[in-house]
Amino acid sequence: xxxxxxxxxxxxxxxxxxxxxxxxxxxxxxxxxxxxxxxxxxxxxxxxxxxxxxxxxxxxxxxxxxxxxxxxxxxxxxxxxxxxxxxxxxxxxxxxxxx
Length: 99
Hints:
Layout: E1 6-13, H1 16-27, E2 30-36, E3 42-49, E4 52-58, E5 82-87
Parallel strand pairs: 1-4
Antiparallel strand pairs: 1-5, 2-3, 3-4
């Protein structure tokens, strides 16, 4: 079984850039920047608390319920709106995947 090396909290926001700036200003998190698509829309943000990254994800219609992983804003969701991503080592050279 692979060792989990990192756990990354993922928070969903309707306005990633505003949330990013709030987290940096209000809590003193370090910025790791925002990513934009070709239209200039922010699609991902990242802040750092201590040594740990926190990913900021956009609301995505393709992940709305009943999809297994829903990314909804807390303002529109009756349920929890955060997820956790696990970083595991890459697949072995033989192509097998960790289970």
